[in-house]
Amino acid sequence: MSYNSSAYKPEQWDDLPNGPALQQAVADKLADWWPRVFGYHLLKLGPLSAELSSMSSPVAHHFSLCSEPNASLIGDFCHLPLQNGVIDAVLMSLLLEFEADPYRILRETDRVLIAGGYLFIVGFNPLSPVFLGKLWPKYQDKLPWCGRFFMPSRVRDWLGLLGYQVVSDERLVYHPLIGEFNEGRFMQQTLASWLPSAGSLYLIVARKLESPLTPIRDKRKVRQPNWTTAPSAGRTGHLSEHTK
Length: 244
Fold this sequence. Notes:
This protein is α/β, with parallel strands linked by helices and 244 residues long. The protein has a single domain, classed as Vaccinia Virus protein VP39 (Rossmann fold, 3-Layer(aba) Sandwich). The protein is 21% helix and 20% strand. The chain contains 6 helices and 7 strands, in the order αβαβββαβααβαβ. The chain has a 7-stranded mixed sheet with strand order 3-2-1-4-5-7-6, with helices on both faces.
């Protein structure tokens, strides 16, 4: 079944159930990473990424790209209006779930990232309480359940194909997003303690390698034996080049 790319997409965190709480949780998790990111340009893809502060990173220029008029750049995620290898870090927050060709977006992002650049991906984890909305017809056509939830392992596989090293894969927010965020605190804490991989959101941090991880066979030069002709016993003829 084809995916309708014109389907309902979140344009701000308030479009999502418990959106402000989600935004704060993601911002807190990213705050631990920003001081480690250096360079000249940090790109935020999508409207939700644009609303996340990254000013604790020493990167000189922070800008956003989406279809919203308040974005720094307005453009297509599959055709970024940027030169090759000019961006030091890219953040995409809850973006791939609502786009028709997520792998193409990753390829285009790879094109503009420098070698050693950081890629931050925030997404919904299908192996978590948030998937309950997918099973309940009442919520299936609402945000965020109208989007596609990709397994974190699948996203890591895509990154591996593009030549990235995943340096971190974290989970956050142990809540189904149905009901008030403060409800069921004990259950959330229990899930976080006993099933840490069941967070409703994942944060994958990857770095672009200068060369792919595919092992290259060591082409060692094999020493050839120095063959010589056997001594002749009174025979005449040409000697090999090795005996001249």
